[in-house]
């Protein structure tokens, strides 16, 4: 009897850590990916890029904010060095995202860690970090299912947006610009609801908002996000240790 219970428990845990489960857990984020991906494709088309060029950028760069910036700088005839440098600074936050998840994949080889990190985005990080509130370790197969699903959806959305870009001149008028923030708000609420330290989470969130606004007034919004992430997380850790 105990053996059967153990087998059933193992089967449930194995299912929760499977590649297919990672695909399923990515589904709630797909609408956000789809809307922003369509907008990125449309803006890339208005910047003068072909469907093939937009597809290649989405496959190799795979970064929404960076692709929007690239499209604007390409339309303004910016130099290759300036575009590369700007994209580098905008995406520095991925170092923080990877560092936050790295403790859960220490048992993997550097190459396997690289495969996971290469497809890590803000959205997949949000889903993955939510999982850390439920379990101490994240499955490699589950993470690949999550990442690859998001990646394919993003590339397809970019290509579709590039194709239909000739008929959509203003994607903001369709409300596509609000889809991604709305998705992140939903992920944040789910994460905070699953944690017992709600007061600390609220303090960190308020500090992050104040820091983003404050730094953005004297510097770029990208710098504000990075500074807010580091300082708000540090404040949250200090408050938690103090309590």
Total beta strands: 0
Overall radius of gyration = 20 Å
Helix content: over 70%
* Count of discrete domains: 1
The profile of the biggest β sheet is: none
- List the secondary-structure elements in sequence, H or E: HHHHHHHHHHHHH
Averaged pLDDT: 80
The computed structural class is mainly alpha
Cα(first) to Cα(last) distance is: 44 Å
Strand percentage, roughly? under 5%
How many helical elements? Answer: 13
Outline, from the CA principal axes? globular
Spans of at least 5 consecutive residues whose pLDDT stays below 50 are 4-12
Main location: membrane
Protein name: AzlC family ABC transporter permease
Membrane topology: Multi-pass membrane protein
Pfam families: AzlC (PF03591)
């Amino acid at each position: 009897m105990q053996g059967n219970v153990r087998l059933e428990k193992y089967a449930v845990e194995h299912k929760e850590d499977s590649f297919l489960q990672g695909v399923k857990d990515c589904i709630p984020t797909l609408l956000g990916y789809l809307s922003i991906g369509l907008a990125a494709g449309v803006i890339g088309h208005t910047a003068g890029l072909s469907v093939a060029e937009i597809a290649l950028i989405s496959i190799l760069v795979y970064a929404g904010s960076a692709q929007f910036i690239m499209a604007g700088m390409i339309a303004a005839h910016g130099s290759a060095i300036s575009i590369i440098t700007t994209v580098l600074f905008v995406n520095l936050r991925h170092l923080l995202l990877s560092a936050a998840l790295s403790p859960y994949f220490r048992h993997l080889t550097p190459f396997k860690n690289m495969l996971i990190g290469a497809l890590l985005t803000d959205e997949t990080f949000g889903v993955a970090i939510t999982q850390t509130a439920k379990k101490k370790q994240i499955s490699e197969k589950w993470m690949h299912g999550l990442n690859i699903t998001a990646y394919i959806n993003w590339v397809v959305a970019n290509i579709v947006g590039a194709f239909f870009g000739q008929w959509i001149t203003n994607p903001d008028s369709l409300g596509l610009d609000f889809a991604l923030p709305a998705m992140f708000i939903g992920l944040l609420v789910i994460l905070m609801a699953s944690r017992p330290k709600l007061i600390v989470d609220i303090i960190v969130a308020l500090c992050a908002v104040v820091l983003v606004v404050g730094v953005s007034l004297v510097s770029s919004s990208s710098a504000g996000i990075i500074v807010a992430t580091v300082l708000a997380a540090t404040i949250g850790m200090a408050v938690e240790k103090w309590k």
